[in-house]
Amino acid sequence: MPPTRSADGDAPAPPPRPSGRRLLLGVAWDVVVPIAVYYGLRAAGVGVFGALLAGAVLPALTTAVRWLRTRSLEGMAGFIAGTMLLGVAAALVSGSPRFLLAKDGWLTGVAGLWFLVSIRARRPLLFHAGRPLLEGRFRSDGTSWDVLWEREPAFRRIWRVSTAIWGAAMLLDAAARVVMAYTLPVDAVPGLGALLWPVTLVLLQVVNGLYYELAGLWRLTSGATARPPRG
Fold it and tell me: Is the pLDDT of residue 51 over 50?
């Protein structure tokens, strides 16, 4: 099957869709494995700080290996890696297990602010995140998103509003993580923090799905509201 192109034939094919297996493996390595390492080390008698630090190092190792293989990092991956390393470094200086427990909250909060700031950028962050998954594949007539962005004000507004939804949700998630880190029993926080991820993501998917439908995103991408060509 030839690559999908825009209606005028000038736009490049959309980026490859990440495989479901790859996404699941990434989630397992970044979320599930660090939690398993933490509780395994705690059961073996390792202190809270050492067990937390061991789990926090794993995602950083993944990023380092990716950089060594490609000599480059995608914007989000580089941002997350940098923020994570800064958080671990600050925790090492402070020696506080609570600070290290709150690391995911601080990371999520900074990411949420980045989403909100990107609303005023040339194209908001969620546009770039959603494009590899949706462009030319889901309820699409093959029109390039570049064309839709330039042609349809509603398309631009949808992605800016959706990015704002994600930013606000991530700030709420971050606040919950920081509160848990400083108020709940130490050994309960990693497990509860891991459970909060799917809750936040499912709620975001539901809210965004409803918004996309009501705002007419799929009508735009399927060409149902396309403007007739000018003579």
Answer: yes
Calpha distance 122→141 (Å, rounded): 24
Averaged pLDDT of the chain: 79
Domain assignment present for 194 = yes
Q: Cα(52)–Cα(103) distance, rounded to whole angstroms?
A: 10
Domain endpoint, select from 96, 131, 166: 96
Radius of gyration (C-alpha) of the chain in whole angstroms: 21
> How is residue 104 written in tokens?
């995911």
In a domain, 6, yes or no: no
Count of structural domains, the chain: 2
Output 64 or 196, whichever has higher pLDDT.
196
Contact assessment for residue 173 and residue 196, using Cβ atoms and an 8 Å cutoff: yes
Give domain status of residue 45, yes or no.
yes
Structural domain range at position 117: 102-231
- 178: which 2 tokens? 């920081």
Using H for helix, E for strand and C for coil, what is the string for the chain? Answer: CCCCCCCCCCCCCCCCCCCHHHHHHHHHHHHHHHHHHHHHHHHCCCCHHHHHHHHHHHHHHHHHHHHHHHCCCCHHHHHHHHHHHHHHHHHHHHCCHHHHHCHHHHHHHHHHHHHHHHCCCCCCHHHHHHHHHHCCCCCCCCCCHHHHHHHCHHHHHHHHHHHHHHHHHHHHHHHHHHHHHHHCCHHHHHHHHHHHHHHHHHHHHHHHHHHHHHHCHHHHHCCCCCCCCCC
Closest to 81 in 3D by CA, of 59, 103, 113: 59
Asked if the structure places residue 149 within a domain, the reply is yes
pTM as predicted: 0.75
